[in-house]
Amino acid sequence: MADRPDRPELRSDAARNRERLLRAAGELFAQHGFDVTLNDIAHHAGVGVGTAYRRFANKEEVIDALFEERMRDVADVAEAALAEPDAWEGLLTFITRALHMQFGDRGLNEIMNNPAMGDARVAEVRDRIAPMVTALVERARHQGVVRPDFDQSDIIFLQVALSAIMERTRSVSPDLYRRYLAMFLDGVSTRRDTFTPLPVAPLTAGLTHDAVTTPRRSSRAGDRHR
């Protein structure tokens, strides 16, 4: 009987440790890919290895939990966007926030682009998120705020394109993707009489060269050390 008052605190501690482990996993996956262990995640989170194994049986369970948490966040953003009466504002909210959540989070980006996740995870994203994105686009077309041939698949490919820009320019101009997002939005909107001022200046020729060739240099360096 004397133990009962402590149980809520223990549950709270367990929840905090779980969040610390997930946050640490996301950071490590972003820095090192999947070549980390649950022990590494525990040390990075500042919790004991035993605590980590009480929360997750293995690294795969951490990946699943991190994926589920992030997808739930994206779904929440889509629902909030659908609740916005103005279809353009709703669409803009979803694109800007979901883009940052899905691709600004390098740990999640590593998970989403890893072949080990398999087709099941891709299908899960499609089944959970795609219907809401389709509803956002259809409503925007109905209100006449986007070009009539705009399609939900255009948003997917926009995210893929801007993800590549984010990765290539993260070290030289982490906000550069916003420049191309503004261009895209001007291209689909029917509500603009003038072009939107671009929020970020273009890169110089030298920085553009660095951004485009850095992955190639890194790859060659890795080959030399094998």
From TrEMBL:
InterPro entries in the record: DNA-bd_HTH_TetR-type_CS, Homeodomain-like_sf, HTH-type_TetR-like_transc_reg, HTH_TetR, Tet_transcr_reg_TetR-rel_C_sf, TetR_SbtR-like_C
* Superkingdom, taxonomy of origin: Bacteria
Q: Which organism is it from?
A: Kineococcus mangrovi
Question: Which residues fall under the DNA-binding region feature?
Answer: 37-56
Name of the protein this chain belongs to? TetR/AcrR family transcriptional regulator
Q: Where is the composition biased (Basic residues)?
A: 217-226
Q: Which Pfam families match?
A: TetR_C_43, TetR_N
Enumerate the UniProt keywords alphabetically: DNA-binding, Transcription, Transcription regulation
HTH tetR-type domain segment(s): 15-74
